Amino acid sequence: MKITICGGGALGSHVLYLSRSLSNARFGVIDNDRVETKNLAAQWFVKPMLGKNKATALKLQMANFFGCAIDASPVRLSKVNMQELLGSTDLVVDCFDNGASRQLIQDFVRETSTPCVHAGLAADGTFGAVRWDRDFVIDHEPVEGQATCEGGAFLPLIVQASVSLVEAIRTFQTERSETNWNIRPGRTEKLET
Fold first, then answer.
1. How does pLDDT run across 166-190, given as a tens digit for each residue?
2. By percentage, how much of the chain surpasses pLDDT 70?
3. Burial class (CB in 10 A: 0-12, 13-18, 19+), 169
4. pTM across the whole model
5. Element (H, E) at 4
6. Residue 137 maps to which CATH number?
7. How does 2-12 read in b/e, with b if 16+ C-beta sit within 10 Å?
8. Which residues form the domain of 93?
């Protein structure tokens, strides 16, 4: 099963790290951002990756730490390259932190009937959610570039949400079931679907 993670930041980097042992999974990651010093507190990157593209850095880290090969797409996802990047994937995992990118993904997966699971965190670190596309409503930003859930204080919630997202991926892969989750600091709730 080919699984493409869209966004290699807080959620995407941890999901890739935690998914490495899923059987019969081939991973790809799409991200055009670069690793910055501020990312080290809440994202799965190491200092030698500073300045590198996030998708490329994740590819290197997965190979160096675990001997895992992943596909890295160090580009911005757009209408122009959407088919090329997502056309052959079996599962899209949306870890982007902005409404415009989420809308691109949602339009594509609905048009192509590609399975997709979305995950997101409140910027203040009070809530996270994992939703399959049929249950996902995009929360559009009133102003582009709003704050995201960054910083070491948010790491426990980021990891909680990442674990829930990996469980959603695993149950889809093994059972073809789609599980939604609500995440709050110290509490994770599986939703009945």
1. 999 999 999 999 999 999 988 889 9
2. 93
3. buried
4. 0.94
5. strand 2-6
6. 3.40.50.720
7. ebbbbbbbbbb
8. 2-191
